[in-house]
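[Meeting: bench + compute handoff]

Bench side (C.D.) handed over the final construct sequence. Compute side (W.E.) agreed to return the predicted structure before the next meeting so the bench team could plan truncations. Sequence as handed over:
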Amino acid sequence: MSAISQWQLRAAFAERLSRMYGQEVPAYTTLVDVSREVNEDVLRAQGADAERLGSIGRVTAERHGAIRVGTPREMHQVARVFAAFGMHPVGFYDLREAAASAVPVVSTAFRPVDGAELARNPFRVFTSMLTVADPRFFDAGLRSRLETFLAGRELFPPELLALADRAAADGELPEEQAERLLHLAVRAFELSPEPVDKAWYETLERISAVAADIGGVRSTHINHLTPRVLDIDELYRRMTRRGIEMIDTIQGPPAWKGPDVLLRQTSFRALAEPRAMRTPDGGVVSGALRVRFGEVEARGIALTRRGRALYDGLLGRVDEQAAQNPSEARGDIARAVWERHMPGSEQELAAEGLAYFTYRLSPDRPRDGGRPPADIVELVRQNWVVAEPLVYEDFLPRSAAGIFQSNLSGEGTRDNEQQGTAYDTAWLSGAIDREVLDPFALYERQQNTSVAGIARALGLTGTLG
């Protein structure tokens, strides 16, 4: 019997989740179809340039999912499930501080980390955990009730966890076990038909719609699946023309004439989905909940710590100018700020150490016997090597919170007189019993490996600057 490797498991998992979610949320299928149309049009118009940040095959297959869990124990279990698919926790995101409304979660993203694995299938799942211990959202009585409720549910059956552990340990599974793993994993993220306790859900919803979605039901589910598109502004226009209500903005950097950096995201609004609701007298009535939406993303170049500091600073400038000029469109303000302060080419980003690149020898490099310069920027400028941008594989807390917030029906409540409970990368690493990786370190390692390879190939001793 043939064995199924982790990347094949991951690709199958992403494809089956996508099929399942399309059946549950038909507008998602429309989003995927429009994304594919836009990508094909961009590829026809731009040729090879359209694939600067990933082959069209990768971009078309690419998805990120989002799920929500309630406790460190559930987060630990979901880490085991995703480890089966070669997906590791990368980055720590505190959405409590990133939104004006009540979003009481901290998050990480499970994804492949090796360059070859990302090229095969870069499936990511943005995974949020409810911050039950934060008294700004949950007083002692509600916290106790919530902890009891969450302790009494099982999101991931023991058979799924056992198969996941084996796949993670062996890096593959026999075909029959692989099929069983995929079946159980997809089923774990389906929307449950079990009636929702109406009074309990509404109690949590007064605090936060996100809290209700996590702690008000006895299961978890896919909140959104996100295709990748090469022109998100055009996709926004086409979805709107089809009569699908989009959120008000595209989150992240503005559309401008320079290089795309980091991540731009938008979504269609959360849909009212029919759900069975259990009333206090034990009866079951038909209700509707708005918790799931369709997100789409356009990915740009990964920025270094310096580049990210510049990005965050520019966002601050945009906020300031938007507050001072409320009649001016925020997108226009942002574009003007970017064009004044963000380098307008990949070459400038690389030269200023603001973005990550990998390097390969140029097929047209000088062959006159001259010695190459011992500086990577000069090597690129003199055509000894070619710089290829690293795609940003991660997320932006402010953008994620903006998407969440745009799809909430209310602001919720937060008691800012209380001291918030501290959560950080180290806490989360301990909770899931595996290191939450630093995304900057991962990009830097890829870049440094390629630079070292160039130094060896060109016979440059010492450190290549």
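W.E. noted at the follow-up: The mean pLDDT is 91. C.D. will use this when planning the next construct.
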